User: What shape does this take?
Amino acid sequence: QVQLVESGGGLVQAGDSLTLSCAASGRTFSRLAMGWFRQTPGKERAFVAAVSWSGGNTAYADSVKGRFTISRDDAKNTVYLQMNSLKPEDTAVYYCAAPRSAFSDVYTEDYEYEYWGQGTQVTVSS
Assistant: This one.
């Protein structure tokens, strides 16, 4: 079992930066790949970024590539999503997720993840 708690969301203006954090507990965090997804009302949850268990591999949605950076701090059991040059279309509830299997590479599909946080709202005004 893994518990995930996101934080860091808020209301910002277009062009601003924001860093989301996701604190994990319950299993050995350092063995787990991690991912970030986002969802807007009426739409399905969409992949944003993922990092492998080792931190050596990352993956990004095309819409955020070059603007967002995923990273992990195993000493703090935390994964981060640094978001720069935010756009109004980045407005969403952001979720972090962890898969059931340990020692996995990056996953980009939501069905590959077992555990989810409660989400944190990010609103970007124009």
The chain has a mean pLDDT of 96.
